[in-house]
């Protein structure tokens, strides 16, 4: 027999404002807010976002159970007007049979065999970027990584002939990201869809640009296909995909899945690489071990897909950066009839939240949690990481489909660039803005240092 958990009666929670609940503290700094709930009230905390009653769970086993139960006894949370405007009803948003159909159509495009075919593009784009760098140059790391991953995303998703569409897509996506984060942390989250605000106007304009650009690329692909041309990009795979009835993705579905894959292939990787460079700059021992591995395994050549498995320390650098700065910083689901966690029944309609940011920075699972230590992931590490304590891409049946793509891309790009340069950011450290993904609050400045005295930037 399970005990019934009623929001507000078990393990307490922070005091709430009338009508607003805990929205003021959440809006001010959601990352610090979740850590304060964990540290001040325990692993199972009741809180309120406006009129909405929530529970935050902070134990890995509860997070894993929650993620595994979505689509059975939990359903995804509706994350507001702006979120729906950007992602439509793509695989991240869809539920039930609609989600199962879309996942079955999209998943084959990002399986390991397909990611292998995109590795050469990842390496080629990174090598071209490094070729334009010079020792002593001062760069904005985030801008450089965003530009690089945009090029990779556009080429792998839409094909090399769509390269000219990078600028309008990236500008519109940056606006959409900013407005989505602002809405999620403010009162507009609770406004009905018909209410117009300046932020919603900017969001509509950005989405209109994205819709126009993606429609143009879809038409180009359809024309090429009609002419008998064969393409090997993600959009071509989506156009060719058929469900169990033989039906293709609709035009709207193609748009929604293109946006979803673009975010997974660009936003996630660019911020992961930005944080990785910042962390490596302050960890000379970790950077030296990275250099040693790259010299030993690659010997000065460019990496290929198969090198991903041969570069464990490079992968651990990426994994540790994802621990400290998980791109997906918040996950929630709504209980349906029969839901339970940890043997406790959860009433239907209760929103249950978990935060990778908070769990990843918990000293119980990661000693000295704010320290950058890729050796945590060594096979013989003295403190094994508990199952479900690391989940930067979510988990369970609704785990991010692009996780493999993002991990391979981050490791290969890091390997290409780190062979030739150190990125020295000195004592400068960027703050964190929790939008759609964790973004730096401003420029991440660094000076390029040649990895070897003879390498000034030219290959």
From TrEMBL:
<dbReference type="Pfam" id="PF00067">
    <property type="entry name" value="p450"/>
</dbReference>
<dbReference type="InterPro" id="IPR036396">
    <property type="entry name" value="Cyt_P450_sf"/>
</dbReference>
<dbReference type="InterPro" id="IPR002401">
    <property type="entry name" value="Cyt_P450_E_grp-I"/>
</dbReference>
<keyword id="KW-0408">Iron</keyword>
<keyword id="KW-0560">Oxidoreductase</keyword>
<keyword id="KW-0503">Monooxygenase</keyword>
<dbReference type="InterPro" id="IPR017972">
    <property type="entry name" value="Cyt_P450_CS"/>
</dbReference>
<keyword id="KW-0479">Metal-binding</keyword>
<keyword id="KW-0349">Heme</keyword>
<dbReference type="InterPro" id="IPR050121">
    <property type="entry name" value="Cytochrome_P450_monoxygenase"/>
</dbReference>
<dbReference type="InterPro" id="IPR001128">
    <property type="entry name" value="Cyt_P450"/>
</dbReference>
<comment type="similarity">
    <text>Belongs to the cytochrome P450 family.</text>
</comment>
<protein>
    <recommendedName>
        <fullName>Cytochrome P450</fullName>
    </recommendedName>
</protein>
